[in-house]
User: Fold this.
Amino acid sequence: MKQLTVIGSKVMRAGLLSMFLLIAGCQSSTSEEDVSEANSEKNREASEGETLNILTNVVGGKNSEEMDMFEKEVERLSGISVNMVKPPSDYDQKLLASISSGEQYDLVYLTKPQLDILVEQNALTDLTEAVNNSERLSDPSIIPEEEWDLVETENEKIYGVFNKLEGGTMPIVRQDWMEKLNLEQPETLEEFYQLFKAFSEQDPDGNGKDDTYGLSTAGLYDIQGFMSAEGVKARYTIDEDGNRTIPYATQAAVPVYEWFATLYEEGLLDPNFATNETGDMREMFLTDRAGMVTYWDAWVGLFNNTAEVEDKEHFEAKGMAGADGPNGKMLRRGDPSLWSIPVNAEHPDMAMEFLEFWHTEEGNILGTLGIKGHDYQVEDGEYELTETGREHSMDHGAPYPMNQQFENPVGSYAGAEEAQSVILDNNSTVETSTADWPEAEKIVENYALEAMMGEIPADEAVEQMQKELLQADLIDE
Amino acid sequence: MNLWKTVKRHYSLYLMLLPILVYFIIFTYYPLVRGFIISLQEFQMIGRGPFIGFQNYLEVLRDPQFIQVTINTFMISGGILIVGFVFPIIIALSLNEVMQSVFKRFTQTVIYLPHLFSWVIVGGIWIFILSPDGGLINEILTWFGKEESIHFLVREDYARPIMIASAIWKDAGYTCILYLAAIVSINPSLYEAADMDGAGILQKMRYVTLPQLVPTMKIVLLLNIMGILRIFDQVYVLSNSAIANEVDVFMTYTYEKGILQFQMGIASAAAFLVLLMTLLLTFVTRKLIRYDEGM
Assistant:
């Protein structure tokens, strides 16, 4: 009996200690697990009730509190209870991991190249019939027919519905500097060169220091507006026989690389351009260090708004089309950003209801202005942004809705609509990508940057690109 | 039978081990086995992909990019291993001779500090130092009359040395502390005996300190060997398209294949090849340095 008591006592102690270790182990894993636990908790709630599970990247609030408010706002406006998971970073990784591990979402946010990969993996639901049967989504006065062409897969099926109207990238210039220096809008590479020279040498910010550059980019992102001078398009072109070419790796691109090498050598191009992230480039522009950057059209308005919020006395950003070439202007239209329904979604019908709501006026106001009472107020039918709303720059995931009938009740930021028109009116096309592109991109960027910095002659760089791309079977000619 | 008796006798201890065992099974061994299975499959996101034997492994080994990253990994890791092994010993021996304890502690703290920073911070510091537009090194070069700035971070000839130097700058302090701790624990009578024999500073270092540091050196070497093929963070932070060909390593290859290109089968195969290489390297190193002897 005594022995049993001793054994019992030992077991109890061991059990208590094990529990303690387990608890200690759990506690040591800190906040990351807290977050995933919170998400799991949300998922549990979702499976118990009729809640739509959404994996989102850009749509929603700016922090966890606002995400909760955003979910409530969706429910208030649409009657749909939603649970939105918005990973703070590495969205692509999270998307892949979620779908591979069998996590169930009713809607996932993705871009067209990601959609193509997931369709190949049979991971997404065919929405062709659902879209055709939807009065709202199939209405060409809401979503133009030609926009649907951008998201159709090779077998003419639709697997994703638009999140927003996708703009494009373009040269964005300091219009106030141009006016100050009496400069005309450039049309050719030579005129762009003269513009950058003036920005670099004539002290456009008036601080008496030689500290301005004509142009800043983030690597090759996005020099399409200058490549258009030679009629060269980024990424792949694939002919009718399926032969793949990368125009940036052809002799046609050589004069543009040489032009960049001149800019670099003469100090007109930001010397950090090859290592810049887009944030560095934006900062150069906003802090009066660069007269031009190449970025998204929507940022024209955001730049102007930021300058206004920061009380900058002289600042006006303006979007412009690139250089004229044999094919006229050629700009890059962004890959469509979409909502898709995974094949293992629990509530596909509810997901379609959400997508219809997202393209209504209420949905558009939510995607732009944000949450009523938090981001904006309505008095006597007049919409007014709150201070938080102004900080959020009318962007809650869809700053420019696809709905053609929608008019932003607050209006748009200075230069934004004009920039969007430049994109839509100047031969802006979506780039053609393949699954191999990330591999090819490294080869192209490596030699292109060397040529642009004058490390090697441009024609030699192009020759090397072609050689390596052919060897790796990444192009056919 | 003996094993069972031992388990029965110490069952309370084994019960206490249980949570840790469960932890390792769930979070280490299961993913390892699952990863190996994926490496033998044609990866599919939903549903089970067909088994294709060692096809993914063959594809990785035939990939010219994998051959390039193998060269890069061994060049960069080799540099980090050799310089990162010798450099902290020199600092530790030098610091040990510093009599002023305030200066000694201050120096220890300063050289240890970078180890506490994440690679994002360290990368930011190095990018700032090496920038052609107002970077510290280029400013110094300008003072010495050099007119044109050097863009160190996009020059292929500087790429690998920068990776090696930044890794050593970050971690030398940590290894140095290990050596200093080992030096402190050396029996003082050995130094007294050396003094009586008329040994000078260098002779004491050569015949007393260094031999006494051998066990610590073995541990440091083995730990470094086990980690060298897994370098990722610094390359991810400091690399760019202009130098990628010189600095892409095994882990960036795995990341690109798995995360950017969604080729999980290939990525898993590459990861297992790295694991095998690490095992082999560790085994050979243990034998060469006679790790189990004299510890």
About this structure: The longest strand of chain A covers residues 168-174. Chain A touches chain B at residues 10-11, 13-15, 17-18, 21-22, 25, 92-93, 96, 99-100, 102, 117-118, 121-123, 219-220, 270-272, 274-275, 342-344, 435, 438-439, 441-442, 445-446, 449-450, 453, 455, 471-472 (CB under 8 Å). The domain at 168-333+427-471 of chain A is CATH 3.40.190.10 (D-Maltodextrin-Binding Protein; domain 2).
